[in-house]
Amino acid sequence: MKIKQLTFSVLICFLFLTSTSFLYAQNKHKVYREICGKSNTFNDFLSLNLVGDGEINLTKLLNGNGEKLELKSMPDVMNYLSKYGWKLESTSTTLYDSSYILFYWVISKDIDNNSEIMDGIYTKQSKRK
């Protein structure tokens, strides 16, 4: 009889714990940022920036060990950021003054709290481990 009571108690505890974690998992929300790139007509990138709460120069991005990342194109940036949960939402391109091409990529990420937004985005000023 005690084994049945113990099994029942363990089952109730398990159901309670799994339902509680399910409720907390529902707190995720989506955040958006924009990657802006500027290249000349020879497709040499002149700037790559992540725009959101401030602007980050993505050509100066560091990995977790403090080494400079070689991000030279929009797909390079997206491939790197996708490792940290960012997804591509939309893209647009504009020809500016017949000599520059401006790229705008909107990206999104599902997060639990705002501290996750900057995961994987390290610069000399914001380097975190």
Short description:
The protein has about 130 residues and is α+β, with helices and mostly antiparallel strands. The protein has a domain at about 30-115. The chain contains two helices and five strands.
Overall 3D shape: elongated
> What class would the helix/strand composition place it in?
alpha+beta
* Beta-strand content: 35-45%
Give the quaternary arrangement of the chains: single chain
Helical fraction equals 25-40%
* Rg, Å, rounded: 22 Å
Mean pLDDT: 80
Give the neighbour order of strands across the main sheet: 3-2-1-5-4
Q: Give the SSE string.
A: HEEEHEE
Query: Biggest β-sheet: count, sense, barrel?
Result: 5 strands, antiparallel
Please give the alpha-carbon distance between the first and last residues: 53 Å
Tell me the number of strands. 5
Helix count from the secondary structure assignment: 2
List the uncertain runs.
Answer: none
Describe this protein's structure.
It is a single chain. With 129 residues, the protein is an alpha+beta fold. It has a domain at 29-116. It has two helices and five strands; from the N terminus they run αβββαββ. The chain has helices spanning 2-25, 74-82; strands at residues 29-40, 45-52, 54-57, 87-96, 100-111. The protein has a five-stranded antiparallel sheet, covered by helices on one side. The longest helix has 24 residues, at 2-25. It is elongated. The N and C termini lie far apart (53 Å).
